[in-house]
Amino acid sequence: MKVVVIGGNPAGLSAASAIRRIHADWEINVYEKDQYVSYGACGIPYYVSDEVKTLDQLITLTKEKLEEHRNIPVHLFHEVIKVDFEAKVALVKDLKHNREFSKPYDYLVIATGARAKSDPLLDIKHPRIFKVHTLNHAEQLKSFLEKNTVDSAVVIGTGYIGLEMLESYIAQGIKGEQITVIGPRLIFRSSSQKYVESELREKGVNIILQRRVTKVESISDTKIKVILDDGLIIETNLVQLSIGVVPATDMFKDTDLELLPNGAIVTNEFMQTNIPHVYAAGDCASSYHKILKKNVYIPLAPAANKQGRVAGSIISGKSDFPFPGVVGTAIYKVLDLYCASTGITEVEAKQLGYDAQVTTIESKEIAHYYPGAKKMSIQLVFDAESHLLLGAEITAPSTLGAKKIDVLATALTAGMRIDDIQKLDLSYAPPFAPVWDPILIAANVARKKCK
């Protein structure tokens, strides 16, 4: 059998590895248009801040290791530019030698990932405008910061990467009061964003919310003008453009491959697309949301790795283990604040017809008398009628509190009610939690709003 994998990211390589474990004699070829494979993009902020010293530390497997230890040929600087699904042939372009060739397949795995969104009015050519999505982006930005004087920065976009990068700029010598973040909201779609706003203001970061950047203009080689929809003009030394990501699936838009409106490839629980023998996994594909009960686009690494493994196992014919879906769990660091969320928001819950209620509590993350005890917050979204947990958000002073989101993600996956959460036998010791864990406190308060 011949297998073609488009994309040398974790999803594509997980698929290839799963197939190779079962079939040593199958022909597997991975085509990657970039120079890097199998890397953790989530570590980019910590590379730019110099907590991670080299790019190599972000790479899990190299081309050489994949070929030598896993017998998986990886072709770098090779871009699949077209697929003939009927003939089962991929058209590949060798970018280094500027030549094209056809590659037939029995099975195709699409793992093209996502690309950073672009806007021609914002993404102008200027040496001080950066995106932060790939290792090449990270290398360019870090090198620039180390070699040039940068006194101010504007981050356009207040999603994960926009806010996670703030500590990188501060670590590289830009003062908090010389940094401005602009976006619709501070990640959370609820009152939890007040904790993020408080953290940013405490560090001096300027915040502009519910406003839109309409244009970016060059003033000089060292100065950029950022223009907002209300006419406000900000002059800065550096701009980070982080306005989101979209599935890298442009080549499939005029084909029979079924896509979501945003371009994400629609798959079933076995990562099969609507075209026979064609699978998709990772940031180019949709995920089934167990609470929303529909396919959604949530491009995060844990799902991508699982999806790739499922696709490869199904292709190999040795597994019927499906991709279980997601509940939308995410965790991230904003300066010294640790944030996490899972499930759906109150607005989404009401749209689904639930009698949605919300409760938010503040509690000490650890025993109040233990050194370093600080407050954390937990917000629960639940159905007052059935008592079913629907979502949760956490802000905390350390990883200890933020990782409690995993308990609530587990509860969501298991379909637990507020009453069930109240009964959980959670661990206790003063350095780890109060005797009444914040999760139990939140559940007790929530139960009072249930019918």
General description of the model:
By secondary structure, this protein is an alpha/beta fold. It has 3 domains: 2-37 and 58-115 and 245-316, FAD/NAD(P)-binding domain, CATH 3.50.50; 118-241, FAD/NAD(P)-binding domain (3-Layer(bba) Sandwich); 336-447, 3-Layer(bba) Sandwich (FAD/NAD(P)-binding domain), CATH 3.50.50.60. The chain has 13 helices and 25 strands. It has helices spanning 10-22, 44-48, 63-69, 135-147, 160-164, 166-171, 193-202, 301-316, 346-351, 399-402, 405-413, 418-422, 438-447, and strands at 2-6, 27-32, 74-76, 78-84, 89-94, 99-104, 107-110, 114-116, 129-130, 153-156, 179-183, 206-209, 213-218, 224-228, 233-236, 239-241, 245-247, 278-280, 287-289, 294-296, 330-334, 337-343, 356-364, 375-383, 389-396. Strands 3-2-1-7-18 form a 5-stranded parallel beta sheet. Strand 1, helix 1 (10-22) and strand 2 form a beta-alpha-beta unit. The longest helix has 16 residues, at 301-316. The radius of gyration is 23 Å and the shape is globular. It starts with a strand and ends with a helix.
